Amino acid sequence: MQTPAMQLSELTKNLGSHRAVYDLTLTVPRGSMFGVVSPNGAGKTTTLSMATGLLRPDAGRVEILGHDAWRDPARAKSLIGVLPDGLRTFDRLSGRELLRHTGLLHGVDVIDVARRSDQLLDALGLDEAADKIVADYSAGMTKKIGLACALIHAPRVWARGSSSRRCPKCTRRSTPEPCDALTGASRHARDCMGTHR
Predict the structure, then answer these.
(1) pTM for the full model?
(2) Widest Cα–Cα separation across the chain
(3) CA angle, 100 then 171 then 148, to 5°
């Protein structure tokens, strides 16, 4: 049996006196797109935050491709790209600088960061704005650079929050499969977990 892209086991999280998530077990198979649909306040964002290592659960376990998100966080986070709700960026950097900064934080080699940045900027139609500061980007461009940051390290799994439901599309037709630039190459799994209201 193949290790799942993401395995959530008996996750529980209390936010003050409110029980946001209780005893949730969920398996996201490799090669799948998986969404969580429920009413506002049902715990989707809290679940996604725990699943991606942004919020520690009170109980339970999260594994990304078999790596425990809390016992081996560096390895688990190297395998996942996250486009969270309410994304905040270093918006005084240019798009290219932001990608370089994010890639280096993920431990990507400088040459690979430059190559991946060019691919992502082209695929998302940001190549002409690459040297413009992100604070001057439109809302759509800001979403695109956020997606590029989530994918700069060629993650094998990626996750996004509900406010990013209108995820940017590949806009360039310069290659037969422009979205390969987004995922890093066909060898990388296109596993995705998302939330939606």
Answers:
(1) 0.79
(2) 53
(3) 25
Please give the torsion angle defined by the CA atoms of residues 60, 31, 112 and 150, in that order, rounded to the nearest 10 degrees. -50
Residue 149, number of CB atoms within 10 A of its CB:
25
103: amino acid identity, one letter: G
C-alpha to C-alpha distance for 142 and 148, rounded to whole angstroms: 10
What's the sign of the alpha-carbon dihedral 41, 42, 48, 53? positive
User: Measured between alpha carbons, how far is 44 from 47 in angstroms, rounded to an integer?
Assistant: 5
Structure tokens at 75: 């390895």
Alpha carbons 168 and 84: distance in angstroms, whole number: 14
Q: Round to whole Å and give the CA distance between 85 and 172.
A: 26
Q: Is the pLDDT of residue 164 over 50?
A: no
How far apart CA 169 and CA 125 sit, in angstroms, is 9
The Cα 48–Cα 53 span in angstroms is: 9
| Cβ neighbourhood burial of 12 (10 Å; 0-12, 13-18, 19+) | middle
The β-bridge relationship of strands 6-15 and 157-160 is unpaired
Tens-digit pLDDT profile for residues 103-146: 999 999 999 999 999 999 999 999 999 999 999 999 889 989 99
